[in-house]
Specification:
This protein is of the alpha/beta class and 416 residues long. Helix content is 36%, strand content 13%. The structure holds coenzyme A. The site of coenzyme A (COA) has 24 residues, from helix 1, strand 2, helix 4 and strand 5. The site of coenzyme A has 24 residues, from helix 1, strand 2, helix 4 and strand 5. InterPro entries: CoA-transferase_III_domain, CoA-Trfase_fam_III, CoA-Trfase_III_dom3_sf, CoA-Trfase_III_dom_1_sf, Formyl_CoA_transfer.
């Protein structure tokens, strides 16, 4: 099986989630990804949120599979020399340190171009370069706040809310990945590397594109008819939190099911397409709404959407989420159960499809990870365990021409 990035060398100077998510996928696609880590400590996620004392945490293992690990103190002269040699032979360099950190170390974009003009330099920061916030150290939640996700998520009367999905972290890594693949293709045409600067704010913003759509609609019309407060409460001058509204031109809402009091996830989401209205009316026991002028057309229904949602919920409330889906799917009414993390982790079809993947780790044993989301017809990434800290020190330095004695001396000096 030939993998698309075989022969591509990546120097992975990333940590936590945003950068590692990107480089992990490069490794799944066949690149040789070498993770550079602080000697003796490594990526902070190795020791964060541990479930087994003394072993690499799942936070690390699930974001660093298929990589090699080299301990290297890049602030020492020897460490700088080794990193420079690695960069000379590499195709891609990725980092997500705090703003200015790499420049201080001597590996900013200007220095990188001088080291290897064919090198593609991927960098993740919280904010775009000329942003008034560009000096901020940034984590997931800060990016969700800055990118427009937090202000538009939650209950109308509640505070801005975080999404559980890693919109700031892994999402930024995926955006950078797209940029790096484009830069690789560009290098094929021009022979030159380039810098790909990916800000977390931009990555979140790209996913709240529809809210920027809504801001412009609001400024023109003063209202947003698909939002839950329409037509009962006035709109302000900014897009409000959408609660459980579908956010598209087709309305939808979260319905309680029979066990909602004891099971916080016995809910189903139902979408009300313009077509198929007869099926909806018949199933919820409102056949008169098929011709009622207040309900017969999508536009007529807008002011009465909560009557529709309430009637649907009066029907779902004596069935569990799976029973509801079984009935509605036959009527081609779009719907889906709220699945818990437990249901997802143990779902046989997700395992069969390679979406939840078992990994055998030499130190901590079997664990499960989330597999490669795109499924290809010509290859399937094989997901292997993450490296132990410094597992490939000797291997990598030998490749660079260092002798066993050199390696021992570097260890002695704390360079590796
Ligand atoms: C995530 C973040 C907030 C963490 O900040 P932090 O804990 O201060 O960590 P830093 O990235 O600054 O690294 C800390 C120091 O360790 C140093 N360091 C890390 N690995 C090293 C190594 N192998 N050798 C020598 N020094 C190393 C860094 O150079 C830095 O030193 P400096 O402060 O003198 O520049 C920050 O890295 C950041 O804003 N990154 C960009 C946005 C991002 O990716 N955030 C999402 C993370 S999921």
């Amino acid at each position: 099986m030939t993998l698309p990035l075989e022969g591509i060398k990546v120097i992975d100077f990333t940590g936590v989630q945003a950068g590692p998510a990107c480089t992990q996928m490069l490794a799944w696609f066949g690149a040789d990804v070498l993770k550079i880590e602080l000697p003796g400590k490594g990526d902070v996620t190795r020791s964060q949120l541990r479930d087994i004392p003394g072993k690499d945490g799942l936070y690390f293992t699930m974001l660093n599979s298929n990589k090699r690990s080299l301990e290297l103190n890049t602030k020492t002269p020897e460490g700088k020399e080794i990193l420079t040699k690695l960069l000379k032979g590499a195709d891609i360099f990725v980092e997500n340190f705090a703003p200015g950190s790499l420049e201080r170390m001597g590996f900013g974009w200007d220095q990188i171009q001088a080291i290897n003009p064919r090198l593609i330099y991927g960098t993740i920061k919280g904010f775009p370069e000329d942003s008034p916030y560009s000096d901020l150290k940034t984590y997931e939640d800060i990016a969700q706040c800055a990118g427009g996700a937090a202000s538009t998520t939650g209950l109308i009367e509640g505070s801005p809310l975080m999404s559980a999905a890693a919109l700031g972290d892994s999402n930024t890594g995926m955006h950078l990945l797209i940029g790096l693949l484009a830069a690789l293709l560009h290098r094929e045409k021009t022979g030159k590397g380039q810098r790909v600067y990916m800000s977390m704010q931009d990555a979140v913003l790209n996913l709240v594109r529809v809210k920027i759509r809504d801001q412009q609609r609001l400024e023109r019309t003063g209202e947003l008819t698909e939002y839950p407060q329409y037509p009962h409460k006035p709109f302000g001058d900014t897009v409000p939190r959408g609660e459980n509204a579908s956010g598209s031109g087709v309305p939808g809402w979260m319905m309680k099911c029979k066990n909602w009091k004891t099971d916080p996830n016995d809910y189903v989401y139902v979408i009300f397409q313009p077509w198929g209205w007869e099926n909806v009316c018949n199933v919820i026991g409102k056949p008169e709404w098929i011709t009622d002028p207040n309900f017969a057309t999508p536009d007529a229904r807008i002011p009465h959407l909560f009557d529709v949602y309430n009637a649907m919920e009066a029907w779902t409330i004596d069935k569990d989420k799976h029973e509801v889906v079984e009935i509605l799917r036959k009527l081609e009414i779009p719907c889906g159960p709220v699945l818990t993390t437990k249901e997802i982790l143990h779902d046989e079809s997700l395992r069969a499809n390679g979406s939840i993947v078992p990994v055998e780790h030499k130190d901590r044993g079997l664990y499960y990870t989330v597999g490669c989301p795109p499924k290809f017809s010509a290859f399937t990434p094989e997901i292997k365990a993450s490296p132990l800290l410094g597992e490939h020190n000797a291997e990598v330095l030998t490749e660079l021409g260092y002798s066993a004695a050199d390696i021992a001396a570097l260890k002695e000096k704390g360079v590796i």
